[in-house]
Structures are given as C-alpha cells and as structure tokens.
Amino acid sequence: MEIASKYNPSASEDKWYKYWMDQKLFHSEPDEREPYTILMPPPNVTGVLHMGHMLNNTIQDILIRRARMMGKNACWVPGTDHASIATEAKVVNRLKERGIDKKDLTREEFLEHAYEWTDEYGGIILKQLQKMGASADWDRKYFTMDEDRSEGVIKSFVELYEKGLIYRGVRMVNWDPAALTALSDEEVIYKEQQGKLYYLRYKIEGSEEYVTIATTRPETILGDTAVCVHPDDERFTHLKGKKVIVPLVNRVIPIIQDEYVDMEFGTGCLKITPAHDVNDYEIGMKHNLKVIDIFNDNGTLSEAAELFVGEDRFEVRKSIIPTLEEAGNIVKIEDYNNKVGYSERTHVAIEPKLSAQWYLKMDEISKPALENVMNDTVQFHPAKFKNVFRHWMENVKDWCVSRQLYWGHQIPVYYLEDNTFVVAETKEKALEMAKEKSGNANLTIADLRQDDDVLDTWASSWLLPFTGFEKPEDLAYYYPTSDLVTGHDIIFFWVARMIIAGYEFKGELPFKNVYFTGMVRDKQRRKMSKSLGNSPDPLDLIDKYGADSVRIGMLFCSPAGGDLLFDESQPEQGRNFANKIWNAFRLVKGWEIDDTIEQPESAKQAIAWFDAKLDQTIETLDDHFSKYRISDALMTVYTVFWQEFSSWYLEAIKPAYQKPLDAATYKATCEFFDKMLRILHPFMPFLTEELWQALEERKEGESIMTVDMPTVSGADASLLDKFEMLKEAVGGVRNVRKGKNIPMKDALALNILSGDGFSDYFNPILTKLANLSELNMVNEKVEGAISFMVRTSEYFVPMDGLIDVEEEIKKLEKELAHQQGFLKGVMKKLGNERFVGSAPEAVVAKEKQKQADAEAKIKTLTESIANLKK
RNA sequence: GGGCGAUUAGCUCAGUUGGUUUAGAGCACUUGGUUUACACCCAAGGGGUCGGGGGUUCGACUCCCUCAUCGCCCA
C-alpha cells in the first residue's frame, strides 16, 4: 500500500464530518446510560467565528468526545443568541447605509428588517463550528428568540413578577445615547481618558464673593441644583445657609453640606447635578434637591438646559468655555485623567440618566447561588474565580432588565388607560386580568398597550440550561448539565445568573463544573482586534494547517483561566504532530509481515514495557481530565506518542532494513496504535478517524467516535523504571559514539559492572538500540575503556586503549565533584539532629538512601579515576 | 480608591496539603546527523541564586509579612 508521506487534512475532514453526520453520531436521545451534557455558550446569531470561539469550542468538543467514548450519553446542545443590543446596532447601521432611519420605522417594520438580516447571516457561525469538528447535536439547535425559548423567558418574567421580585423603578441608569437604551452596569466599560479639570467660580448671592468648584463636565452646570461642601471644612463655614448663582443661567441654588465631599479634591467645593451623576443623584435625594435633566435621549441638550438647546453634549463642552470665560467664571483649567464609561456595544460615552426601568431584585435569589459555589457544589476551574464571584455576589445590585430596543423579548406588561398595568404571559390572559382589575368587562385587547421595552439579552440566556431542552422528558434526563465552558469575562453577565436561575426556577444547580477559558491574545499580549489586524481567521488557519492542528495548537499552552498567547507557530507545531502520527502509521503499515518467523526477545520486552507505559499514561490522563487540566492532558498524549511510542517503542521493534516483521509483534503494535488513536481522538478527531478506519477493515457505520476509551489494564509497573535505566544506558553509548565519532552502523562491545537494582531484563533491547556486537556482565573494572554510570552500575565501552586518558579523568572528576556536592547537601540534613528527630521517618529513610547511592557512586568514580591515573 | 490574582529557563507555562536525588515541560536556541516512516525528522547540549527584602521551620518555589512590577475585576 502506497501512502503519501504527508498528511493531507482537507481531503479527510469534510469526508469524515459528513460520515459522522450521516451516521447521526452526534445525536443524543435519553436512554439508560448516564448523561453527559454541555450547553454551548450561544454565539451571537450574526457573528462570525473568531479565535475565542475556536478555543472555547475545542475544549467543549474534547470533553464531549471523551465522555462519549467513556460510555456516557453525551449531548452537546448548540444554539445562537439574538444578542439584542449588538444585533440591533448592526441592523441600524445597515439600514443607515441604505438610507433608512430607525426612527422612521414602526416596531414591526424594524423587526422585519432584523429577521431578514438574521436569516441572511444567522447560523453562519454554526457552519464554521462544524469545520473545526464540533460534535454538537445539531438536531437540538436553538435560537434564543425562537418560540420555545421566548415562551420560557416570558413565563419566567411573569413568575418573578408574581413572586414580587420584579419592580418598576425610576433610577439612575447607564444611558447609551447612540442605541437610545439603558444598559446594565456590566455593559459599561470604563476607560482612562485624558481630559481637563475646569475650575469655575459661582457668585454668592447678595455678595461680591465667589466660590470655586472643579468639574470635568462644565456643560452640566446648566443642570446644577446645589453646591456642596464638607461640614467640617472650615474654609466654607461662613457660607452655611447662603446661596450661589449658577453662571450663564443665573439660577439661584443653595449651598449644602455633606460628608460625601472629598476636601482634598479640587477646591473642596462640589457642584451637584442630580440628573447627570450617580453620586450627585444620591446627594440630591438626601437633600431633597430639584432634578433638572438637561439632556435629550440622544445626548443633545434639552429645553431644560435653556442654553445650547439641540447641540451635542461634547460640542457644548467646547463651546461653553469661551462663553464662561467671557462671563468671567473661569478660574483655571488643568489637565486631568479620569475614567469615562463607554457602551460595550456602541462604544459611545454613556450618560448617567434618570429613567423608569424594570428591575429584578437580586439579594435574596442570589443567595443559594453564592452558597453553592462557595461550598463547591458548583465547581469553578480554576477555583480562583470563586473569589471574584463571591465579591460580585456579596455586592450584587438589582438587575435592570429592560432595554429600549425592538430586537428582543417584549416585556409582558400591559397598561390600561389609567396607566395601571397587568403582567401576563399572553395578551388574552392580560385582557382577562385587566377586565378584573378595572371592573370593566367591555375592555378589548386594543385597549391594552404592551410595554415598549424588551428584555436584556441575558434575561433569556440565563435560562438556557433548562430552556435549552424542549421536551419535559429530555429536561428530566439532561438537567442539570455537566460542564460549562466559557470565558471568564462573562462570569457575571451569564455564569452567575445561570446559577441563580437554576436554583430559583429548578431548585437545583444548572451545571456541576464551570471551566473558564482565558482570552486569546497575540504574542505581545494585545487583544485580538480587527483594527490591529492581529486576529487570524480560524478558517484560514484550518485551511492552511488542518482543523486538528489548529485545535491542538490552541491548546498547547492554554491553562484554564489564563490568557492564550496565540502565534502561528502553534498550529504549525500541531501540523508537525499530525504528520508525525501519520508517518508512524505509514511505517507500521509499510512493514511486510511474516507469520513464520519467531518473535525476537527485544520485541517481546518492548511490548511488555509499552503496555505498562500506556497503562501509566491512561492513569495520568484520567487524573488530568478529572482536574480539567486539558493542556496537560494533551501534552501527555503528545509526549507518549512522540517520545515513548515513536522514538522508543517503534525503534525497539523495528525490523532490520527490508526484513519482515513477525506477526505477533505486528498484532500487538496495531493494538497499541488503536489505543493511541483512541486517546488522541478527542483532541484530533479527523486524523484519528482517518487512521482508525485505515488500521483495519471497518464495517459501515463504525467510527472511532463510538468505541470505548482504553482503560487501565493492570500492566507490570516495575518495568517502567527498568526501562528508564535502559534509556540512560542507550544514551550513554550514544554519547560515547558522539565523543569518539563512531557511526551508528559500527557495532560496539559493552561491559556492565552491575550495581544495586541493576536488571538485565532489557539487555536485548539495549543490544539492538545501541548496536552492540557483544554485551557482557563483568566483575571488575575494564581497562582502556570509556566508562559511564547509570545509577550505581558502571558501563564500559572497550576502546583498545584508544582513549584520551586526560579527557576521561576530567569527565569523571566533574561527575565526582557533582556527586560530592550532592552528598554534602544530604549529609548536612542528616547531620542535623533536629531533622532526624522531627522529620517523618520516610523522609529520613529517603535521605539515607540518597546518601548510600551517592557514596557508592563516589567510591566507583574515585576508583576509576585512580585506575586511569596509574 | 476597593478587591482578586500573578511574578520560576529567551518565550509560554507545570511544580498537587512544605521534604521524589542541587526545580521540570513544550517551543525557541546551539552542535552533530539524511540510502533504510517522518528535516513538518533524529540525537546530544547550553540556559534559572524560583521578582527584591524579611520572617516561621530541622527544612521554603511552596506558608506569613513587606516592597516593587504587571494584569484583571469593581467603583
């Protein structure tokens, strides 16, 4: 059979993905097996695959494929998120390009455009996930705004309202003047910004005196309703009870006192604009101040401002300065850095604004979630995120769930003519309630006005662990889900709220484990971004290196919770590994098999050893997976395949050039290969399927995806240490060859003076791998030979006196010095009575063993040096 | 300003409740090697006073304090 010398991923990827789909291998239905469920964090419906998705979904696919092979009923539920504000912003932009203004559209018309957009772009990302090999159950694909999900969202709102947990409140919110909607605190990003600090003086009423305040937002003086000083500030005690005049608008406002004021900052005198600053608002409430809202929703100045009406807030900040200057109110202007909040979605500066919104009370319902994360009922990996979580949960604020958008679940609140309202799942139900409430039996649906607002996107996605399952029997079987894999950046947006919802609505946790991924950054630790051009397209990488290579490339260095510094050398390393596996397969399949020849001893031993090695590897792998150390698990299979299997095992059994291999060894090797492919499969699904299918004749419908993961077989573990000694011996001979420039094809003789724990078990392999003409056990040192030590045994390669005595002595003395230094350290410990007295016995015994070994080596080395010096 | 975390080889990271030979891995680097699966390869090698200082202990990369630097979250 002729096999290409390089693996060609593109040829096999589409083929096997189609095969898996045709065979319905991703699909799960409840049965008697233990379920293993992952809810895929839904990407935005109009999104495209980026490196973050790639990392995230690779990890999920690894977990789900492994669980499937471990006999569980694995179900990975995919879907897309309507992403209300993000999608609406995109639709608004596209309409603008077509010359359409959102304002000119009715809600229905706008939604038509939005659906058109989602139909066009929606689901592209799911197709892209298939390219990377995602084994999700596509038959269960959901959309957060489809009928089933919407029903769940509305139901939950009504339920929470009826429990008294939802209320309407006028509060200071984060207002996005571009999207014209309120945002939750989590949707605001604070950025350091270079600005100015303006010192403005306000005339005191009935006096020629002034007070000076400092502000970063001079335009807001138009909304000032007080000036505030600290009660203990002696500089201002004489102003108590006086009033000042707001510049330009000449409004008379009181001077109040409050401990909130920082005496050190600015002039110690603070202007209060309750409508446009959260802290000012609170002070305003406390002191019963008037609230003057000087901004329109879009960030221009309103009639209430009296001046600059209709102009943009940032324009006014500039143009008000000369006006103030002219009026003699500017004292000085300083450079000042402060933090300004920006909308996560539209990137405009948010405006604190008073507004009526719907809130969900968080304090009570978040308690079970906090408790069950802290006691590890829900486990976080890595656990350090528990602290972050606790901090947020202990200071949780009520959740503003309403958004002034069209794209989303419209709030099920229906207003009557008199502005009282009812909350119901359907219009019909609402009408019934309204009739009862008003006592008017003649009301019709047309008399009810549904609230214009929609719900925050997260108010639908926090329910997904259960609304993700439509049939009750599915929900009963799959819920709670097993693992959640997501970025730590949405721990509050999503993870915390899902846990809250799980306990609130189901009385049970939504998932048992949360694996947090880091962010994918470039080598300079910069975030991946379009403008920097440092964000590779995962699909291009898949084209270039193959999906398996990109998958494992991402994982080589991706600790849980830590950022992944991506570089193209990583998929390249992945490709190299894929090729290594490919070529090992090519080697094995290329051998001619002869079932009449006897199995060599060396092969028998190599098989016994590798059996034990594989056993140990499976144990290590299980341990890594149990701790969610995915990178370590990958590195384990990487090393075992490349180092142990390819470089040691295959070399040990390899027949001489153009000689056949015995049938028994071939059979064992194919079994090993089969097992190696299985443990590799979750990481590299395509290549392993390709080779597994080629390893032997398979029946239609068979797949490596559904065979069992190898389990620990109880192999002889003592062989492992003996083999490590063999490796050292082979290395020793290689060093001799290198030092003397003796090519591999010239056979050498080797004599061994055995020490403690020596085993000759692997001598046949040693003979083969070191290319020895003879291998003898001796009772005394060999003259005229180059020597090296493995543990306490001494190995001699006779050189017919062709050795450089000086060099040999130097080499041995160096080793001697090292051993003596080591012994000194050991003796220092053992010489310390307090150590011997207080350390555990086992530790002391270990030190004594070290001492004995070191002394034996020193003795041998000293003698050898003396011999050479003779 | 408050909180959380990090600092170990050139880079990215392990190092599990303090004691497994005087700290490990991958990549990178240096040297040598190609008729015999793979140069997307094989073999060998160099490289770290575990951020600085102090403390606890018989013993500290590991625990405590402090300083420095960086990152993240929240205000």
- Strand proportion, as a percent range, falls in 15-25%
> Spans with pLDDT under 50 lasting ≥5 residues?
none
| Percent range of helical residues | 40-55%
CATH homology superfamily name of the domain at 181-352: Valyl/Leucyl/Isoleucyl-tRNA synthetase, editing domain
**Which CATH class of the domain at 181-352 is shown?**
Alpha Beta
User: How would you classify the helix and strand content by structural class?
Assistant: alpha/beta
Rg result: 37 Å
Count of alpha and pi helical runs: 27
Question: Could you walk me through the main structural features you see in this protein, from its secondary elements to its overall organization?
Answer:
The chain has 27 helices and 31 strands. It is α/β, with parallel strands linked by helices and 870 residues long. Among the domains are: 181-352, Valyl/Leucyl/Isoleucyl-tRNA synthetase, editing domain (Isoleucyl-tRNA Synthetase, domain 2); 548-716, Isoleucyl-tRNA Synthetase, Domain 1, CATH 1.10.730; 804-870, Helix Hairpins. Strands 7, 8, 9, 10, 11, 12 and 13 form a seven-stranded mixed beta sheet that branches. The two termini are 61 Å apart. The structure holds one RNA strand of 75 nucleotides.
